[in-house]
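Final report, Chapter 2: Outcomes

The project's central promise was a pipeline that accepts a single protein chain and returns its three-dimensional structure in a standardized token representation, suitable for archiving and comparison. That pipeline is now operational. To close this chapter, we reproduce one record exactly as it appears in the project archive, with the input sequence first and the structure output second.
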Amino acid sequence: MQSYIVSAFILIFFFMGLGQFVNEQQMETNRSGFALAIENAAQHARMEGYFTPDIKDDMLEAIEDQTTISKSEVRVLELTETQVCTRQGFSESNQIHYKIAIPIKNVIIGASFLGITDAENMYWYPLQGSVASEKICKG
């Protein structure tokens, strides 16, 4: 009987390890899809001189399409939402800034079995950066 109990626990931990590998792949897919959506939006914002409402909406849609995260879960912490015109030479004043975070949930498979709460079994993955505005303003 003891060997059956030990075998059952070994099988449980084996399958948890196998599930963790699959979970890691899904989390990486979410992180890379998120980064791609942000980079594409930043390049569009570079052309317009800021994150327009349309660019922001398209970015949130792309995050939702390329990850398993809904756009309501995305935290937009900082976006340049006023037009920035390019100046001759490098200047901090012609930079378009962004800082956005997504939740990465279910970091550990079988967390409740191990006594880990849902709040402890997640983290926020932020991306922040700047791109230079290419918008030339008249005047």
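Archive annotation: Residues 2-132 form one domain.
This record, like all others produced under the grant, will remain available to the consortium after the project formally closes.
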